[in-house]
Amino acid sequence: MSKVVVLGAGVSALTSALLLLEKFPTEIEKLTILASEWPGDYHAHDFTSPWAGANWASFAKNDDLEQIKRDKVTYLRLTELAKDEPESGVKPYILKRCVPRSSEKPWYIEEKFVKNIKTLSEQELRFRNLDPELYYGYEFSSFTITPTVYNTYLLSKIRKLGGSVQRIPRLDLITDVVSTIGYVPELVVNATGVNAGKLLRCWEPEELERVHPVKGQILQIYEDLPYQVMVEELPEELNCRADQFLNIFPRAEGGCIVGGIFKKGDWSNTIDEKLNESILRVCRYHVPELKSATIYNTYVALRPAREGGVRIALSTYAIEDISRPLKVIHNYGIGGAGYQSSYGSAWEVCELAAEVLDTRKKWAKL
Fold it and tell me: In the CATH scheme, what is the homologous superfamily, with its name and number, of domain 2-356?
């Protein structure tokens, strides 16, 4: 039997840990999650999961078949959770998405993969101050996830299956896991988000350049909305920043989060007050239902992005003065799609783990 260590306690790490325990009950002797931040912690803006919008609206390009598979798997699992386990923090919502007519129709609309697809009427587009000659829209069944509730739910399931947890200082290098726990585990899962490149710099310096933050800024408002709204490429008359968009996601407990921006390469945790004003103005302009929206909190956080997209791969690293190498499955660099691809990504981690754990289990392709 094998000892497994998962680095990180965000949604990618926790979902990977849960599926490993579920799929390999006889192969894994011990699974330990090591992390410096945990569900319920809000002190680190580079610990992305607590701050996420956490809905499902696949970003995958129509020719990115691998990412489409991950997102499909996750949509189906979220459908089950919303129906059967509402205590998970997953709640179904209709998503209304408005995009320029020049943009291609996303794969999940083309394939009719998602449920309850409808085209937004010209009347609704005008209601949202969008020119029907320049924009079109559609709606479908999506989900909003309350991050801390959901990640606490995952952690509870992991513990019930025998997984253990340990809070540690942040590691400097990936191989520091050995001195931290006192042995070389059969497998490490590296789900350290935006800091993954730093851990690998001595072996793969290119990852230090590939992994980068995409800063977001979010408003939290008291007012509720019975559906989600997304507007991409905001109208010129609003004079917004080039990296600005509108996302409004209601939460199961009431209120909404409103964003936002995609600011690549910005590691800062500073809040731009003028941007707050712009986000609120855009919200009121496109969603008249929230014209009296009241802000009770605002924050910034870093999406863990990577040039080339998410990395799910098996690597081996030599450890100084130890003959046995460290086998690591990476699961990082998903950007802003962590929740909506979490189960599909974790399933791929399990496929790679089957090779390391010397199991004869047969894995169905996603």
Answer: NAD(P)-binding Rossmann-like Domain (3.40.50.720)
